[in-house]
């Protein structure tokens, strides 16, 4: 079989150590399944700044285009804050999203049965929670022009950013959300702020239009972003798939993740458009940050990284059985009582990054 | 004594019924304290649309300028959604903020001891919670130009909104936050998204600068908005005063309110700049919406409206003792077991809007 080309970008902070555990799973798959991986490693974020003085090199973008998928660790070490706005570690992920056209960020917020008590919410409010947030990631206020800080004649300065959404950008991410809903509970809630923003007004109109034209079988509702922030706390299980813009998606998906009480457990996928050659660029990363405070100590939770690999198998390689296998192995290891520090609770066995990774592979 | 001029704007939905209960408190104050009120009532939101075809008349803005403070109910009845973006009921509140320069929205998120169990969060996470969110309300993406929906030559449409913050706008709201912190736990956390937005970069810089120049005794920290959404769920009691822009403030303050489990209980104040005549325009309103689904049934919770009046006494009239008295009366009535439907729990006595209002006045 032709080997599957993966670009592996561990990043900074805990990135490299958790990526190590995902590699174990890759090795297991090569040994036990009819698949081989052609792995290319490279530096991004703080690691790239240290070596090359930039958060990401153009060469890395080219390697990403040449791969079947990108497995990403994490970036954002604040020790690089001084290098300036256009060289911050985060540029690595923003540039990958933009250059590869990775417009649909899929972020599951799922409560693991074994970890219901890790949530700050009452167990009866979050048990069984399983939301999928689809966040637009190459448009909106993250990238709109004009932007910057300008100085007026009188010395006043103005910080400016522009939210822009086109009908096409809204339509394609809405389609991803509706498609996902069909494989889940068949409900999509579209989130904007159409009562104060025209970009939200257009968002709502286009999502409705796509629904009426092509997804009439899916239940569609609309919610204002402020109300959504509240509803996620009041009764998060009312949601199945949420679809929203870049900025609202940033806040709401982090909020939804925290509801689960297990940030270190949650993966994400970011998908681009299917290309003429049939390939679809895609990047998989944990939703948590690079946690520089615990980096290098071997205590970080590798589960989000391992589950990101499971999403890669599911969405880029159509290896559903193997994705299921990994997810089941994670659930079993948790049920057996193993815990990294971030999810530790009384009566459980506290283990480090490597022991957790090994246990999951053994369980497979 | 010269009567205090109040403009009373009940709005639509439950607005009029809960305002009725605030009026009871005003009447009590006139009878039992050395104060008289000169009350002017007018229509806004859905009520104004029904009568005049517009969400607010210029005349109402003039009356607001002529008053010592505005007591506002709620607007937003969705039955007016069809009238179009520039005539929606919400315009009433947006225009009042903008025309009166009401730039600092103070939103306390406080957990009442008697209502700890109304929160979806675990009691040990929220007991004693007392946050004050200071949200900028006349700038940012709500009002920035250019804005609108444009059609390109190829038929594509683009929705556009612009976030703009000037040094002056940031400085004045930061000062309000630092001043408030001094009367509380002396800590301010400033929230933006400076890792992707230049307007956030400027925000952070100006807040830091104001701090270093004039408020060095107050503890200042900075947090990204997505992280803040998470931290509010993970450990809300870490915060004292939060200061943020219009859009982040909209989501984060609603989120913080919901943590308390008693949305129907929370008031807000929105303050403008002190004028040459020494007056400071100010508007007081419940944070909840107009809840058209329960309007007219006499079941809405009047406490947020009554506590909004308490904030009016505190911030516009410097009647601290009377504000304390109202707040204590509310706490006592709750402790006695009276509950409106929204905060009802087992073993408590369910009452309607009027009975709750009467009970609070009696307790005073
Ligand atoms: C690192 C940062 C630029 C990024 C974002 O804001 O999109 C992150 O918070 C995320 O959600 O992936
Ligand atoms: C009614 C609406 C325009 C308003 C806002 O978004 O500011 C409301 O949500 C609020 O928070 O006061």
TrEMBL record, chains A, B:
Supply the alphabetized keyword list: Amino-acid biosynthesis, Branched-chain amino acid biosynthesis, Cytoplasm, Leucine biosynthesis, Magnesium, Manganese, Metal-binding, NAD, Oxidoreductase
Does the record bear Oxidoreductase in its keywords? yes
Q: Which residues bind Mg(2+)?
A: 226, 250, 254
Q: Which cofactor does it need?
A: Mn(2+); Mg(2+)
Chemical reaction(s) catalysed? (2R,3S)-3-isopropylmalate + NAD(+) = 4-methyl-2-oxopentanoate + CO2 + NADH
**Signal peptide start and end residues:** none
Output the SUPFAM superfamilies linked to this UniProt entry.
Answer: Isocitrate/Isopropylmalate dehydrogenase-like (SSF53659)
Segments forming domain Isopropylmalate dehydrogenase-like: 5-360
Q: What is its main location?
A: cytoplasm
UniProt keyword Amino-acid biosynthesis present: yes
Kindly state what the record says about how the cofactor is bound.
Answer: Binds 1 Mg(2+) or Mn(2+) ion per subunit.
Q: Residue numbers for the site described as Important for catalysis?
A: 142, 193
* Pathway assigned to this chain's UniProt record: Amino-acid biosynthesis; L-leucine biosynthesis; L-leucine from 3-methyl-2-oxobutanoate: step 3/4
Q: Which residues bind substrate?
A: 97, 107, 135, 226
Subunit-level organization: Homodimer.
Full protein name: 3-isopropylmalate dehydrogenase
Protein's organism: Acetobacter peroxydans
């Amino acid at each position: 079989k032709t080997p599957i080309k993966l670009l592996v970008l561990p990043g900074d902070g805990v990135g490299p150590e958790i990526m190590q555990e995902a590699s174990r799973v890759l090795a297991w798959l090569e040994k036990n399944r009819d698949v081989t991986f052609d792995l290319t490693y490279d530096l991004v974020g703080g690691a790239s700044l240290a070596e090359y003085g930039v958060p990401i090199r153009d060469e890395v973008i080219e390697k990403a285009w040449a791969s079947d998928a990108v497995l990403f660790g994490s970036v954002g070490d604040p020790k690089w804050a001084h290098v300036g706005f256009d060289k911050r570690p985060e540029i690595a992920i923003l540039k990958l999203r933009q250059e590869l056209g990775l417009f649909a960020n899929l972020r599951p917020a799922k409560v693991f049965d074994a970890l219901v008590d890790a949530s700050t919410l009452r167990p009866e409010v979050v048990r069984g929670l399983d939301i999928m947030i689809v966040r637009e990631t190459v448009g909106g206020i993250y990238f709109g022009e004009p932007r910057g800080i300008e100085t007026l004649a009188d010395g006043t300065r103005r910080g400016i950013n522009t939210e822009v959404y086109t009908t096409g950008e809204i339509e394609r991410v809405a389609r991803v959300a509706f498609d996902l809903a069909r494989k889940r509970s068949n409900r999509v809630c579209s989130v904007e702020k159409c009562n104060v923003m025209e970009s939200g007004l257009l968002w709502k109109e286009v999502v409705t239009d796509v629904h009426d034209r092509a997804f009439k079988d899916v239940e569609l509702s609309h919610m204002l972003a402020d109300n959504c922030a509240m509803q996620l706390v009041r009764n998060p299980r009312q949601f199945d798939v949420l679809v929203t813009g870049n900025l609202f998606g940033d806040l709401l998906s982090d909020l939804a993740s925290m509801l689960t009480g297990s940030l270190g457990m949650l993966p994400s996928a970011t998908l681009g458009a299917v290309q003429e050659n049939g390939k679809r660029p895609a990047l998989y990363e944990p939703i948590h940050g690079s946690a520089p405070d615990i980096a290098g100590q071997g205590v970080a939770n590798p589960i989000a990284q391992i589950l990101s690999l499971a999403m890669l198998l599911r969405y880029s390689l159509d290896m559903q059985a193997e994705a299921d296998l990994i997810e089941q192995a994670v659930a079993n290891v948790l049920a057996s009582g193993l815990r990294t520090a971030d999810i530790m609770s009384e009566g459980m066995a506290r283990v480090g990054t490597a022991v957790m990774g090994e246990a999951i592979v053994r369980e497979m």
